[in-house]
Every structure is written in C-alpha cells, then in structure tokens.
Design goal:
This protein has about 220 residues and is α/β, with parallel strands linked by helices. The protein folds into two domains: about 90 residues, Methyltransferase, Methionine Synthase (B12-binding Domains), Chain A, domain 1 (Orthogonal Bundle); about 120 residues, Cobalamin-binding domain (Rossmann fold). The chain contains ten helices and five strands, in the order ααααβαβαβαβααβα. A five-stranded parallel β-sheet has the order 2-1-3-4-5, sandwiched between helices. The longest helix is centred in the middle third of the chain and has 31 residues. The chain binds cobalamin. Cobalamin binds next to α3, α4, α5, β3 and β4.
Length: about 220
C-alpha cells in the first residue's frame, strides 16, 4: 500500500468514527513496513487531524467529534511505540546512532490541552537516540521547573498550539534563562502557534523554532 492509499483509508475510518478500522489499517501498514514513523505522524495523523476543521468550514464541528478523532490518533500513537523502540534499537545496533543517550523533557504549558504534537515529538526524540520524557499537557510552571531540575536535560521541548499561550511561554523562557541550576540546556519550541505566527522569533528567546522531525534532527546534530 502507498502512503496515499493508507492516508485515504485512515481518513475515511476517522470520518466514520471507527477506531477499530483505523487501528487495523495502521497496524497492518507498520507491520508490513509500508510507512515510516515519520511519515505516519507527519503526513497521515497530523495532516488528517489538522484538516478536520478546515475541510468543513461551512459547519462547525462538534467538540465531541474532535475528541473522537483525536482519541483515534492517540490510540495510534500508543500502538506505534513498540515500533519506535524497535527502530531505535536497530539504529544503535547498526551503529548509525551513538549508544550514549542525551536527555530531553517535553511538555505543554498550563491550560494547553493540545498534546498530540508533544507526544509525537517525544517519539521523534526517542528515534533520534534521546531518553525522552513527556511530562504532560496542561503543566503548571512549578512542575516544569521541578522536572527540569530533576532530569537535568540536554534538551527542553515545548509544543504550543494556542496563540494565547505565547506570552506565557515568553515569561517561562525569561525565567528559565535566569535560574542558574536550570539554564544549561537547549530550548526548542514548536507547534501550530509557532509555525503560524510570523513574529514569534522577535517575541521569544528560544534556541530553535522547529516544525518537523528533520528540524529536530538538525537540532540534535548541532548539539554534538
Ligand atoms: C484535535 C483538536 C483539539 C482537541 C485536542 C486533543 C488533544 N489532546 O490534543 C480538543 C478537542 C481537546 C481541542 C480543544 C480546543 N481547541 Co483545538 N483543535 C484540534 C485540531 C482539530 C487538531 C490539532 C491537533 O492535534 N493536530 C495534530 C497535531 C499532531 O499537529 P501539531 O500539533 O501541529 O503537531 C505536529 C507538528 O506541529 C509537530 N510539533 C508540534 N509541537 C512540536 C514541538 C516541537 C518541539 C517539535 C519539534 C515539533 C512539534 O509535531 C507534529 C508532527 O508533525 C485543531 C485544528 C487545526 N487546524 O490545527 C484545533 C485547534 C488547534 N483548536 C483550537 C481551539 C480554539 C480549541 C479550543 C480553545 C476550543 C475548541 N474548539 O474546543 C479548545 C482549547 C483547549 C485548550 N485549552 O488547549 C484552534 C486554535 C486557534 C488558536 N487560537 O490558536 C484550532 C486551530 C481550531 C481552529 N481552526 O480554530 N482541540
């Protein structure tokens, strides 16, 4: 099956609210190596979800339908995890990737419930050889500071979907930059609000503004 065929079958399963069918399509594609995890996340799952509003602009989509669709995507992310670990193991065995792992912490800001991008980012980091910890959606600032102090990560990634949270992100970065024990990491921001805002770089003092797996790979290469 081609990516286009998988995507079209997945989209119709999602539109029919059939988690069973969606799981069966994606499990088969992963088992047969018909798609990479990167393609699954970026070209199938993200594109399908991001288009559910815009495709049907003439009618507003009920929230329950957004919940059903995003829960199908969440299930697919969960069932992909064994393939994520398998692929990382393969890369390490082939020595295509070093065995020493850097650490990364991933989260969404307080009141941000769009967490699927952060979940995918965590898996991308695992594929890139990080020990990656997703500490949650809707994470209060104190918990973010506490997790960073605990893990002492090399990389901190935040996913922001709602534009309203950009000011909060600006304040968090300012604070992190001034706490001596916390500040020795690379700070990466991504998500819908980041790549849909034109002046985000003038508002925030992050190290990198990223969108994709390839961007994250470049960030990792820059850290060596
Ligand atoms: C699903 C969804 C929901 C679900 C979220 C479920 C969940 N647990 O995540 C629910 C129903 C809960 C929801 C609620 C709301 N939503 Co909503 N939602 C969406 C929808 C349809 C899809 C978003 C999504 O998950 N996409 C898939 C993910 C995987 O894509 P992604 O985040 O872009 O991630 C990819 C990349 O960006 C990258 N990435 C993401 N983050 C990062 C970070 C790093 C570091 C890196 C490297 C990469 C990376 O990785 C992914 C892989 O490609 C969008 C529509 C749209 N066009 O975006 C609206 C949308 C985001 N929602 C919106 C709104 C307004 C809301 C609500 C306020 C109101 C409402 N409609 O209910 C609430 C707010 C809740 C809150 N406080 O956060 C608006 C946001 C507009 C704005 N002001 O910014 C949108 C754009 C809809 C619209 N057109 O108005 N929503």
């Amino acid at each position: 099956m081609t990516t286009e065929q998988i995507k079209s079958r997945f989209v119709s399963a999602m539109r029919n609210h059939s988690r069973e069918e969606a799981v069966s399509i994606i499990s088969e594609a992963l088992e047969n190596n018909d798609i990479s995890i990167q393609t699954l996340y970026e070209e199938i799952l993200s594109e399908s979800l991001n288009s559910i509003s815009s495709n049907r602009q003439e009618q507003s989509i009920p929230i329950w339908e957004e919940h059903l669709s995003s829960n199908i995507v969440r299930t697919i992310i969960e069932l992909t995890l064994p393939y994520v670990y398998k692929q990382r193991q393969q890369l390490e065995l082939n020595k295509t990737q070093p065995l020493t792992r850097k650490k990364a912490v991933v989260f969404c800001l307080e009141e941000e419930y769009h967490d699927l991008g952060a979940r995918m980012t965590t898996d991308f980091l695992i594929l890139l050889g990080f020990d990656a910890y997703f500490i949650g959606a809707n994470t209060p600032k104190q918990e973010i500071l506490s997790a960073i102090a605990y893990f002492q990560p090399d990389l901190v990634c935040v996913s922001v979907t709602n534009y309203f949270h950009l000011t909060k992100l600006h304040l968090l970065i300012e604070e992190l930059r001034h706490v001596e024990v916390l500040k020795h990491f690379t700070f990466v921001v991504g998500g819908y609000a980041i790549y849909n805002s034109t002046d985000v770089k003038s508002q925030l003092k992050a190290d990198y503004y990223v969108k994709s797996f390839e961007d994250l790979k470049s960030v990792k290469e820059g850290m060596r």
